[in-house]
Structure formats: structure tokens, C-alpha cells
Amino acid sequence: MAAMANRPQTPPRHSLAEDAQGLFVGTLLVALSVQLLQSAGLTTGQIAGLSLVASYASGLSFGLIFFALNLPFYWLALRRVGWAFTVKTFSAVGLLSLFTEILPKVLQLETVHPLVGAILAGVTAGAGLLALFRHGASLGGVGIVAFWLQDTRGIKAGWVQLGFDAVVFALALAVMAPMTVLYSLIGAAVLNIIIATNHRRDRYIVR
């Protein structure tokens, strides 16, 4: 009886309704982060950062660019992780693209200091991504390729993502002032610290 009591139990899975609210809340928080970045004229790393830089340079919608840039990654996500993750990630990317179009029409941020905007954007994006991760989703992009290269080529995922971010911020210097890019780097650092500190599978066991 004691052995049975000490045996680890299979953690319960999230229900469909719980996953839906997780994706809704997570993408809404990230959409708020994007609006903070746009209001302060900042950017960030990964595909979201590349989409912001492209949006500033071209005048096109962030949501449209973000959705389009993520399309090539779904095939790899399907092969590497499976249907459930891919469908949830596709849904999350679609929701974020939609929310970033709607939110500025109902919430206008007129004065945002770049440093405050960077920190708040990092915090809200970090919280949103944690919600998505814990419900088996992501916002696609470079992370999928990074972990695929790590599994198949032995290249560290962190180095791949760091290299991509270096390219994004180098491109940002072409359309932004150096001080603005510095504030953007601070925001990206806040985001990465939040993810590194809180995204622990050994602490969060419910799937």
C-alpha cells in the first residue's frame, strides 16, 4: 500500500476549454506587448521582432507580416512535434495576428517612455508565452527550427536563436536610432529572463 501511495500519478491533461482560454489569454497578453512596442517605436527578437522591423520599414500591418512569416514553419512543427502542437500554434499565431489588428482600434497608448515600454512589453510577452507553453502551443518561428537543428545537427538551440536575434537587431539599426535599439534589447532581455526563470517542466506538471 505504501509503495502504491508513493507511486507518481499521471498528471491530468488540460481540457479543450482550458486550452482555449490559455491560448486566448496568452495571445492577448502578447498582443498587448506588441502594442506597447509599437507605441514606443521599439522591436524585439525572434519572428515577432523581424515582423516589427519589416512593418516599420514597409508600412504594412504587423499582423499580416507575422502570419505570413510563420507559414513555412508549420511543416517542420508537424514533423517534429505533431498535430496537436501544430494546430495550437497555428491558432495562436492566427489569434495574435487578429488581436494586433483589433487592439489599437479599442486601446490607444499615446505616451510611452521607451524604457518603460520595453520593460512592460517584456513582462507581458513573457507572461503570455508562458501561458501558451503550458497549454502546448507556441508562436511558431525560429524556435521550432532551432530545436530541430539541435536534434538533427547537434547545433545548440540557444545559439541559433541568439544568431537570429543578432540579425534582427542589426536590421533594426537600419530603421531605428541606436538608443531605440538599446531599449529594445532591454525589453528582449526581460522577456528571456522571465521565460528562463519560469518555464520549468519539473515545476509545472499539468499538461
From TrEMBL:
InterPro entries: UPF0750_membrane, YitT
Keyword entries, A-Z: Cell membrane, Membrane, Transmembrane, Transmembrane helix
Topological type in the membrane: Multi-pass membrane protein
Compartment(s) of residence: Cell membrane
Pfam families reported in the protein's UniProt record: YitT_membrane
Transmembrane segments: 20-37, 49-69, 81-103, 115-148, 168-195
Primary location recorded for the protein, binned into one broad class: membrane
Name this protein carries in UniProt: Uncharacterized membrane-anchored protein YitT (DUF2179 family)
Record organism: Rhodovulum iodosum
